[in-house]
């Protein structure tokens, strides 16, 4: 019996998600529970469970006293090696980038230690999904690896691959922090709002300037990415 109920929840969730994509736009109000019960021939509890799942997925938002409304989709990371563009496209969102800073700078301690050099090329960018700010990415790469006139609105991983240094492995840590005033201004949130901060150390097995060719892999990028917690979530599968 429980599997049948769960199946009904999943079927209704998928049907509502399709209705949202095809018939509604951001800001539209979802039909009330009674109408959905009649339209889909399910129980009120099934409707509530399906809506709760879509709220958790970031497709809907509840406003007390007003109803349930369509919101911007939430990007999801499966904790695999992927670029921002890939994560956004997987979520059905259109990725765009606004460049804040590009230039050679003294590398911060963590980046200098990872890259093995005191100077690095810094790329600071605001990343958006469907025009909504999602993250602020601060990346450091070897100064002589990419040209300053590169297309910085495109995928950094794609540029590294074309330069002969594709990212083949990365180490990443994630922590919750309060948004700084600088990041909050770019992300369109209040200072102190909880955000997810990713520290990533990326490696390549490709050819790198000024590195030992005998090394099996070389450090190619160090990045700090600050994500809006209401626009991004982590998803993982845990096996016994």
Description:
- 30% of the residues lie in helices and 34% in strands.
- With 240 residues, the protein is of the alpha+beta class.
- The chain folds into two domains: 8-70, Winged helix-like DNA-binding domain superfamily/Winged helix DNA-binding domain (Arc Repressor Mutant, subunit A); 75-235, 3-Layer(aba) Sandwich (Chorismate lyase), CATH 3.40.1410.10.
- The strands form three sheets. Strands 4-5-6-9-8-7 form a six-stranded antiparallel beta sheet. A two-stranded antiparallel sheet has the order 1-2.
- A hairpin with a 3-residue loop joins β1 and β2 (67-70).
- The radius of gyration is 21 Å and the shape is elongated.
- Residues 1-6 have low confidence and may be disordered.
- Keywords: DNA-binding, Transcription, Transcription regulation.
Supply database-style keywords.
7 helices, 240 residues, Arc Repressor Mutant, subunit A, single chain, alpha+beta, two-stranded antiparallel ribbon, 10 strands, 2 domains, Chorismate lyase, disordered N terminus, six-stranded antiparallel sheet
Set down the secondary structure blueprint.
Layout: H1 2-23, H2 33-40, H3 44-56, E1 60-63, E2 67-70, E3 75-77, H4 84-90, E4 95-106, H5 109-115, E5 119-129, E6 132-141, H6 156-162, E7 167-178, H7 181-187, E8 194-204, E9 218-228, E10 232-234
Parallel strand pairs: 3-10
Antiparallel strand pairs: 1-2, 4-5, 5-6, 6-9, 7-8, 8-9
Helix pairs in contact: 1-3
Question: Brief description of this entry?
Answer:
This protein is an alpha+beta fold and 240 residues long. Helix 1 crosses helix 3 (44-56).
